[in-house]
UniProtKB/TrEMBL annotation:
Organism superkingdom: Bacteria
A Pfam family annotated for this UniProt entry: AAA_14
Natural source organism: Acetivibrio straminisolvens JCM 21531
InterPro entries: AAA_14 (IPR041682), P-loop_NTPase (IPR027417)
The protein, known as: AAA domain-containing protein
Record domain AAA: where: 51-76
Length: 94
């Protein structure tokens, strides 16, 4: 899809972020087992005194996307208590 307008950008982002439409992660995207890196990343993301982004980096096929999906589901589960905006820009394709 050529990114030529704001509408196309929004469509592209919605296609990469299905939880924007339904409010929850598709079950096939969230694995039940959580690794140490998940808990460490959530600790830094939920740190109260500092507003920040959490960057997951590492070699290919080590579980970064799985951890990110688990983190997004955790934040969506808490959305009833706070405003949550989770975005996954798939930048490796560009």
């Amino acid at each position: 899809m050529a990114i030529t307008s704001i509408e196309n950008v929004i469509k592209l982002l919605y296609s990469y972020n299905p939880w924007w439409r339904v409010g929850t992660m598709p079950q096939d995207m969230v694995k039940p087992t959580k690794r140490f890196a998940y808990f460490e990343s959530m600790h830094w993301l939920e740190h109260d005194s500092v507003r920040r982004f959490v960057l997951l980096s590492g070699a290919r096929r080590v579980g970064k996307t799985t951890i990110m999906y688990q983190m997004i589901q955790n934040l969506l589960d808490k959305a009833c208590r706070q405003r949550v905006f989770c975005m996954y820009p798939l930048i490796t394709q560009y």
